[in-house]
Design a protein that fits this description.
It is found in: Nucleus. The protein has 405 residues and is mainly alpha-helical. Helices cover 58% and strands 7% of the residues. It contains 18 helices and six strands. The strands form two sheets. Strands 1-2-3 form a three-stranded parallel beta sheet, covered by helices on one side. Strands 4-6-5 form a three-stranded antiparallel beta sheet.
Length: 405
Amino acid sequence: GVPGTGKTATAMEVLRSAKRRMNSGDLPAFTLVALNGLRLASPAHLYTELHEALTGERLVPSAALEKLEQRFRGTSGTGKGRKRRRSHDSDDEDDDEDDDDEEEMEEEMEAEEGEHDDGGARRKGKAKAQKKNQTNRKKERSVLLIVDELDVLVTRSQSVLYNLFEWPHSTGAAQPLRVVGIANTMDLPERLMPRVASRIGACRLNFTPYSQEQLQEIVRARLAGSECFGKVALEYAARKVAAVSGDARRALELCRRAVEVAAARAGNDARAVTINDVDGAVKELFASPQMAALRRASPLERRALGMLSALQASSGLAEAPVNLMHAGMGAMGGAPASSAAAASTSKSGNMHPEAQRRCLRRLSAQRLVVCSAGCTADAGMASLNVSANDLQRVQKTGSNRGLAL
């Protein structure tokens, strides 16, 4: 579903309920791991983060993948599979297996001695065996993996996604794996390779944009009985957001700004937010600031916006890698339109790295571009915070011609 439709919030609430049921004994025990694709250095680092969450050991992606293959593909059984695991596992895992073998031998010896001993010794051996079975069941509890921003893991080979959805189908794994993916792209399964899409199956839940009635309920729940918003003003705000995006976060942001407008208008005498206050907030949040910033944008900034828009349109994703945006800016054609632009461009026609960093910082500060958590000028993901139609209108009416779409 598109951003702001409650995907992550719904998944987290379901997980909180599942953990309560697990603690009360209504559900089998499981290990929860939650990862966000935007916080990964690269798609392959999902292996590193997952392995570290399960074992506490941080490895490079290739080594972490090998460990996860052993855990989730069932290569830790008897015979050749067991030998492969012993040849690749860490010393700690080998020690664990040796300890298990020693315990098994001790139990067998005790059981044999118990045959000639009294009933107390037999009961003692049985109790130890039950305790070991409980420990093994705890070790083999299933892993529930939540991957938010799944779109970011799409690569040319799609190997990360293939492994991610192949592991749950493996039989005889040391630990069963269950995966829940959260994506902003509505048709992501259709964009994947057949070998990946076939492993996702039909377990798919679409989150549509909120209606104005649903947005009203969400805002009322956040207000928690407060009378600061009149019924008509709240309905007006919900209709405005529903007509644009149906984004619950944008609705809450609009209502928060409307309260600030009402407070600035009437000070402490303000009793409730009016339609005029909401209308003023709408003009601030949806219209004038971004359009004014677009008109003031330099040719280099417009070129960056155009490249980011083109990347999003070609991939169908809500975000695009910053490094690809920078790489494509020098190849979009057209000479710099000003001396400042020319000074920021090398002899080869590519932008200097420092100029790229300054450009991204300015666009982010003006809220024309939204950068992901941990994003820098050299790595991370960014998304356009204005519509393609607005960009085209500014291109046609503005005096600068640095924008290419």
